Amino acid sequence: MQPGLSSDVIILSFAIVVIGGLGSVEGAAVGAILVGLARAASVHLMPQAELFMIYLIMAAVLMFRPEGLFKRETARRI
Amino acid sequence: MRKDLHPPVMIALVAGVTLFGRVLPTWTLSLATIAASNALIALGIVVLARTGNVSFGQGLFFAAGGYGVALIANAWGLTDAVAQVVVGAACGGLLGLVIGPLIARYSGIFFGMLTLALSMVFYGALVKSTALGGSDGFNVGRPSLFGMSFTDPREADFMLYAVSVIVTGFAGIATTILFRSEFGLASLAVRENNLRVEYLGLSANRIISINFLIAAIFAGASGAFALMAQRHIDPQFAYWTTSGEFVFVAVLAGNQSVAAVFVASMALELVRSFSNLYLPNTWQLVLGVFLLGVILFLPRGIGSLWMRDRHKRRIPATAPLTAERGAAP
After folding, report:
1. What residue in A sits closest to B118 (Cα-Cα)?
2. Nearest-by-Cβ selection for A76 from B124, B125, B326
3. Do A66 and B116 touch (CB under 8 A)?
4. Domain count, chain A
5. Residue B130, domain member (yes or no)
6. Nearest CA of chain B to the CA of A17: how many Å?
């Protein structure tokens, strides 16, 4: 435990929310599982990539789904 | 009748500030150098923020500029300060040219997180690369200027101060002209509603890409300054807390005034060093309270202190510096 803990958590949680899609609860759950599994797998298989595994996952998801996995359709002002 | 400053007046202002460095004590000089360098990169974030996108990964271009300059300086013995700034800007700009068009289609938090992801991937690669010194980084030599080398530390400090103030000042003048131009106004329109801009026949993605490129060039040049000031580079340049600090300067300044960026950057550095000096154990607390105070009482940034009235008249009701393009109800 340390006072600077928040900064690690906030980046992780932002990444999860972005992967899942803003405003989507199931998206956040799926994003958390995805990030958790990917980090665990990379620690096991490729330890040197652990540092940026979250970001790679996020970039890969956003490449195909620019607004996250579970983006809800919303009306927008034109 | 517009009361804006004319470019010659602004150039005179830059020259005045540069000469003022002659009478400043040494500690202020290095502080002002860092403030000017931070202001340059924050200026890039403000330019980009006018399209509604906030980049949380300017550290990527900051580090790219710094590492590019450091590698070239060590390999070919390039020590000229102005040349180093140009090289840094070129390195940042080249990277921005590649990345800008790729991420221009994202908006809001997705844009921010993606830029952050790119900078963190770069950070990870730098930490793991033993050829570049890994997490320790490496040192570079003292910068020179037009063939003159400065052995007196006071002269060297002043040289660095002068170069950073002049470059940042001219970047500021160019940005002011950009903000008043048709392109600058189109950028504001993208933030308001990118679909309407597209209907007008302009490409919103292109506008964002160009602004992104400008921000990347500024960040690369700023990386060169940070390198010259520290004479050392490490992967911390690309870490997200570094980028976050620059975003903070931009948020403090607001996106209405270029001068506010310089004021915000200098104020942040002053508060940081004074609280560090007098309250060594709780300086983060002082810094946090200062930032909270500015956000509470000047929600649109320091620039709203002197831009308020005129802004209301010309461009009604613009949102504060938040990334909320797209998905508006």
Report:
1. A55
2. B326
3. no
4. 1
5. yes
6. 10
Number of domains in chain B: 1
Residue B112 domain boundaries? 7-240
pTM: 0.82
- For residue B224 the two structure tokens come to 């060169």
Residue A73 lies in a domain: no
Task: Answer yes or no: is A7 within a domain.
Answer: no
Q: Is residue B160 part of a domain?
A: yes
Is residue A69, in this structure, part of any structural domain at all?
no
Distance of alpha carbon B88 from alpha carbon B311, whole angstroms: 35
Question: Mutation test of the interface with chain B: which of A52, A63, A69, A73, choosing the one with the most B Cβ atoms within 10 A?
Answer: A52
Distance CA B2, CA B8 (A): 16
For chain B, the three-class secondary structure string (H helix, E strand, C coil) is: CCCCCCHHHHHHHHHHHHHHCCCCCHHHHHHHHHHHHHHHHHHHHHHHHCCCCCCCCCHHHHHHHHHHHHHHHHHHCCCEHHHHHHHHHHHHHHHHHHHHHHHCCCCHHHHHHHHHHHHHHHHHHHHHCHHHCHHHCEECCCCEECCECCCCHHHHHHHHHHHHHHHHHHHHHHHHHHHHCHHHHHHHHHHHCHHHHHHCCCCHHHHHHHHHHHHHHHHHHHHHHHHHHHCEECHHHHCHHHHHHHHHHHHHHCCCCHHHHHHHHHHHHHHHHHHHHHCCCCHHHHHHHHHHHHHHHCCCCCCHHHHHHHHHHHCCCCCCCCCCCCCCC
Question: Is residue B323 pLDDT above 80, yes or no?
Answer: no
Q: Answer with the residue of higher pLDDT: A42 or B315.
A: A42
At B141, which amino acid appears? G
Q: Please indicate whether, in this complex, the C-beta atoms of A55 and B116 are within 8 angstroms of each other.
A: yes
The tens digit of pLDDT for each residue in B260-272 reads 888 888 888 888 8
pLDDT computed for residue B326 by the predictor: 45
Question: Where in the sequence is the domain holding A33, given as residue range(s)?
Answer: 14-64
CA distance B245 to B268: 10
Q: ipTM beyond 0.90?
A: no
Give the residue from chain B lying closest to A20, CA to CA. Answer: B110
Residue B77 backbone phi and psi in degrees, to 5: 65, 35
To test the contact with chain A by mutation, choose from B121, B126, B241 the residue with the greatest count of A C-beta atoms within 10 A, namely B121
Q: What is the pLDDT of residue B147?
A: 66
